[in-house]
Amino acid sequence: MLEPVKSLSLSLNIDKLSDTKNDRVDKDFSSLLRDNIQKVNDLQLKADSITEDFALGKIDNIHTVTIATEKARVALNLTLALQNKIVQSYQEIMRMQV
């Protein structure tokens, strides 16, 4: 009965997760935020480019345009939700009395 649990932990590589955490280069919050905002911007630019190519007739697959646009929209909505949560957290900290 213990064998399935043991095999599950081996297949998930739980031991390797702790090793890679120590080898990872830690980034500060600002560079992490900057990198992810850049990725969102890249998705927006890619969606704009694909939409322009579709309008010019270079691409005839509407699915590609729709998928690229939705990826950009979801990434932007997630970024805005994250921004709102950060602002709310900051305001909550500022309301705390020391």
What key attributes describe this structure?
4 helices; about 100 residues; single chain
Determine the N-to-C terminus distance.
54 Å
Shape: elongated
- What's the alpha carbon Rg, rounded to whole Å? 21 Å
Mean pLDDT value: 82
Largest sheet entry:
none
Query: How many strands in all?
Result: 0
Which structural category fits the helices and strands? mainly alpha
How do the strands and helices of this protein lay out in sequence?
Elements: H1 3-12, H2 14-23, H3 29-56, H4 62-95
Helix pairs in contact: 3-4
Task: Give a verbal description of the structure.
By secondary structure, the protein is mainly alpha-helical. The chain has a domain at 28-95. It has four helices and no strands. The chain has helices spanning 3-12, 14-23, 29-56, 62-95. Helix 3 runs antiparallel to helix 4 (62-95). It starts with a helix and ends with a helix. The model is unreliable at 4-14 (pLDDT under 50).
